[in-house]
Amino acid sequence: MTRWTPTDYQPDDFANRRHIGPSPAEMAEMLRAVGAESLEDLIGQTVPQAIRQESPLDWPALSEAGLLERMRRVAAKNRVMTSLIGQGYYGTVTPPAIQRNILENPAWYTAYTPYQPEIAQGRLEALLNFQTMVADLTGLPIANASLLDEATAAAEAMAMAKRQAKSKAGAFFVDRNLHPQTIAVIETRAAPLGIEIIRGDAAQDLDPAQVFGAIFQYPGTYGHIRDLGADIAALHGAGALAVVASDLLALCLLKEPGAMGADIVVGSAQRFGVPMGYGGPHAGFMSCRDELKRAMPGRIVGVSIDAKGNKAYRLSLQTREQHIRREKATSNVCTAQALLAVMASFYAVFHGPVGLRAIAQRVHLHAVTIADALRGAGAEVAPEAFFDTITVRVGVGQAGILAAAEQRGINLRKVGRDRVGISVDETTDAGVIARLLDAFGIEDAARPATAPAIPEDLLRDSDYLTHPVFHMNRAESEMMRYMRRLSDRDLALDRAMIPLGSCTMKLNAAAEMMPITWPEFGALHPFAPKDQAAGYAEAIEDLEAKLCQITGYDAFSMQPNSGAQGEYAGLLTIAAYHRARGEDRDICLIPVSAHGTNPASAQMAGMKVVVVKSAPNGDIDLEDFADKAAKAGEKLAAVMITYPSTHGVFEDTVRDVCRITHEHGGQVYIDGANMNALVGLVKPGEIGGDVSHLNLHKTFAIPHGGGGPGMGPIGVKAHLAPFLPGDPREQDSGAVSAAPWGSASILLISWAYCLMMGGAGLTQATRVAILNANYIASRLAGAYPILFMGNRGRVAHECILDTRPFAEHGVTVDDIAKRLIDNGFHAPTMSWPVAGTLMVEPTESETKAEIDRFIAALLAIRDEISDVAEGRIAAEDSPLRHAPHTVEDLVKDWDRAYSREQGCFPPGAFRVDKYWPPVGRVDNAYGDRNLVCTCPPLEAYAEAAE
Questions:
Q1: Which domains are assigned to the chain?
Q2: What's the whole-model pTM score?
Q3: Is the pLDDT at 226 greater than 50, yes or no?
């Protein structure tokens, strides 16, 4: 008898052995629990047969080793040059301690948006550091926790100025010294809002009486610096607001915009240690005067207190946000750039104010050295006053100079027909300067400059980064420990399942993440010549082809750098299509259950929102929909639906909704938030969709990064393809973000995910996501009402637990969410899409053991609710109300009506590796009443504790 027993284990099978959590044996157990004979039987009971796709996804899977070998070959097709192009993107040095401990650390990149502040204190502190850094450097008191990029921040600032200015003028002035891509995005944003854009030279063409606001670039895109105080004072005299787009490194030397009277300052934190990445992701920033803080878009981290009076951080003023204000929202901002903002904040902590000033001085003097050498050789160099950027008039020799520089490994900026631009950065050294000057025919060694080219009245004389966090000992051991302390305060996917409905917190595999830090991908400027980015072109084209096959659409735009940005871009594409046909359509039908960003995006695209009712079972009320579509008639522009629905079920009537819309000449926008239930089973472009955005940070494995980055590319049917966003360097491009391919470097993650999963693996992931959700629904159905089930009694990839009945006993959805922290879990999505409920999405990546641990936690919580309901303990005395429990609770005197064991070690919680939240329940009202959005002085902490 042989001892040789063949095995079917495939160690290189990424889809089934690494990405998908349950083993085949565990799936069999789960199928028995849900009452299905097989996985395909369950899918048949869940997904309507009428919408199932006919052809399977057919590309083969790569192993992890095979993927990395493929990525190396593709990366080698990119040519990494020394970029002196500038235009808002610069070479920078990412300190290895930050690269390894932040960017490459799943404790930071797999965390979710900090809506549960008790388990997000680490990243909230890092983001508060970011806000403090931005506020200090710009000279304004309030900053947000990042926006998508500089161009979209500028567009948001324009909209913010329109709402807040006393002037009733309808125009906005754009200084011609703004970066071209910023101008393009501003123009895109202005058009549907009816804002007239006036472009010109601010020194000559600005008439404050004509505008509600103006934006200046400081330093300008061609290097110019000047005091904007007089222009800003004139604007204020006319009731208009002033926006300044600036550069954080320059502000380490230059007079800050706040000192000139600026109302709003925007820009990018990219050059604070974040690689260019062919366009992103990078943290855009915005700061403003205190009086404008409630009008500021995006997230604001504030300081509050917990239940014991200890200092605690939280997101402040959340009632401003789009998911609450819906069509009344002034912005659809949803995803920020939290991970990149954290990197930039640690760059500032790492170097401190003295280090940042030294870097800025070195950059500036290198630029002066180059300018002096060129002038000494007879060249015409402008401007006289600058920080890091100059232009050189080269006449008909422009092409020759650009080519000579490229031969020496340097990219310069083409400016007009007779100039070249040179932007110096942190990576510039004597060798780069020598190669550059050689391209101009200057062989003599440049004499290093010692005197600045900054006028005395423009040199900064105020302090910045005075808080102790920016003056800590910068030994790497201390920095490493500070990063570790902060990450230990958080709960991310590297600790536990994050079962957030609609947010798809799935595995972000290490092999998918590795290539983004390779210099062949990270060091490319987004406006580098295309022949230097052949690797990126190959990756993006193949990803687009795969997404087309997955969705049934004909073309994609990769430009939108968030899901909400994708919604906005998709609706603009629809609007442009209608205009091209000579049709005046502006009504958008949106179900009441839609994502909060949907109505906000429609408003931004210039559409009027008409809300459609839900039927009692949670489906779209087809009668109400048909009636409102008929009433809209020739004004119907679009309908926005989410499929499967936001209520977590596959609606049988989706084709009817699409048909009715098309009969009235409208276009169907299918929100891709729930694409994790469709891939390989249903193609939205084949069931009637005309356009969809895909949340690549959900379905396609880009990590959430503590609240960003995200990507939201849009797929369209062929008739809409001509109206997709164009190159942001071009006028009338319809661009929605600063770079042609958005946050291009993280597209690599989704491409790697598709390559390693293969078509069959992606399909299996969808099936298992549906299995995991139905398993949870089946196991919890006796303890918690499941709010919506499909017509066949199944949920899709998520389910909604109805906790509203417990409110009559004094137990709130907040109590349950905070108690889950004690059990070692992040709460599911709270009170959305239905107030007082929990929406649970386990994804396909969670193992049965982890799901069972989560179920055990919820069942134990249900027993505690019964204790309250049956009078054994009052709600205010129960562990539910005191949750979450901290180590401080454990070691202090215990006088509670339940044991320490029950309070601190409930079912689901690990004993040895238990997660302890650093603070108790955070007081949200206190934080809004006492708004503090920058690092407070140390004495304020003592006052809070008192």
A1: 102-350 (3.40.640.10), 352-456 (3.90.1150.10), 553-743 (3.40.640.10)
A2: 0.96
A3: yes
